[in-house]
Amino acid sequence: MTRSTAANPHAPASLERPGAGAAGTDAHFRTIAELAGDIAISIDLPARTLRYLSPAFSALLGHEAAELQAAIAGKGGQEALGALGTHLASSGKMPPGERRVEEVDVRNADGHPVGLQVITTVVCNDDASCSLVGLLRDLSPQRAHLVDQRRFASMLNHEFRTPLATIDGAIQRLEATAQGADEAVRQRYRKIAVATDRLIAMLDEYLSPDRMAAIGKVRQPNTIAARELLEAGVQQLREAGRAAVVEAEEPTPSLRGEPEGLRLALKVLIDNALLFSPAGSKVTLGARRSGNGLEFTVRDEGPGVPPEDAACIFDKGYRGSNAAGLPGSGLGLYMARSIVDVHGGMLRLGEDGKEFRLWLPALDISGQQQLASSSPNSDNRTDH
């Protein structure tokens, strides 16, 4: 965004006093600053009186110089310009020559927030007096650009990570069930798995800079403890104002898979329980060993899925007969089952229609994933 502002020292927003200082040189420096779109400011110390303020200040914020003067003195404009006035007042106490750069948020005349970068220093004048001089820079274009960058990175991260998680889960299953395959086939599986891990690592490195900074630029293991999944479910219920009952065996094993995908699958089941059970009723989360894996259960106190809907409840776009008037697209349970499928697990409805049972293969002591050969998956299912 380009902002064009005339640098006229005699414009109404200017508070420069005629004859103060080397006017010609001062005007040159002000013009240089204002050509870059910055707002030049000069404040006499220790009185903290505005000596000069660029006309661009009023053009940007809609406030007059007198309003900023009042904010610096702590007498007015506190809601809109108070933070800027306080910052400038405190900057005037710096030792001469010290440079201060900070971001300050203000509000324009319409009440909309505007971010400013404030660069200030104290200079000594020829007459032994001092002044606070500085620049105010509009951060709106920069912040908008950062928001666009983050939105774009987030979109790319999601669009790439979702199919990669599907490939990752599928190749894990192929590797685990490839006992009868020849060496060449097993090597191809391994190459696919390594390439998938490399692509996921690249997403973490280049599209999640905040996450990388937080974890020291080390990729996290592609595993999640069963206890972590349960804790995420309990937190979701608490945030919804519901009582959570946990019934879990100890110790609970770890699961190999994409943590965010598994959390999402469990979240869908809990969302379903919240939507179709009475307000204030409890939801019970369970976890127990089952064969070579772990079975999670989500049980609510609602009427349950009607028997006539049970066979179709996981179909894409299907909404049960008891969903009339309730929000939803019929994709949640379908998506949850798809996620569970690629991790070699199973998701089914309990016999009374009030409980969902989510079985996932666990890691054994050597860190290998255990899968049941009879587990249904998205490659051989025919129910949708």
Number of helical segments with 4 or more residues: 10
Query: What quaternary form is this?
Result: single chain
Largest sheet properties:
5 strands, antiparallel
Low-confidence stretches: 1-22, 212-221, 365-384
What is the overall pLDDT average? 79
Share of residues in helices: 25-40%
What would you say this structure looks like, in words?
The strands form 3 sheets. The protein has a 5-stranded antiparallel β-sheet. Strands 7-9-10-12-11 form a 5-stranded mixed β-sheet. With 384 residues, the chain is an alpha+beta fold. It has 10 helices and 12 strands. The longest helix is centred in the middle third of the chain and has 37 residues, at 140-176. Mean pLDDT is 79; it is low at 1-22, 212-221 and 365-384. Helices cover 39% and strands 21% of the residues. A hairpin with a 5-residue loop joins strand 3 and strand 4 (113-124). The protein starts with 22 loop residues before the first helix and ends in a 23-residue tail after the last strand.
